[in-house]
């Protein structure tokens, strides 16, 4: 299956939304079983300000559907989301 990367940028001032929905987001990752790696993007102060997620899914439509069902998306956390096919070369 191809890999898809999601780069999500949080809305300014949305750290409380991220923290309030973090466990639901982590539970969603565990339940769906398609995340190869993931972690928060950090701002200049070292605070969580976005997400980088690598998904192992059959196609772009599945990647978009996964992202739309993420509790972070449902909570309105993201200002922008970019999903693109990604080719693993190293690691």
UniProtKB/TrEMBL annotation:
What sequence ranges are listed for the domain YCII-related? 3-87
Q: Name one Pfam family in it.
A: YCII
Gene3D superfamilies from the xrefs?
Dimeric alpha+beta barrel (3.30.70.1060)
Tell me its family: Belongs to the YciI family.
The family database entries (PANTHER family) matched by this protein are listed as:
PROTEIN YCII (PTHR33606)
Protein name in UniProt: YciI family protein
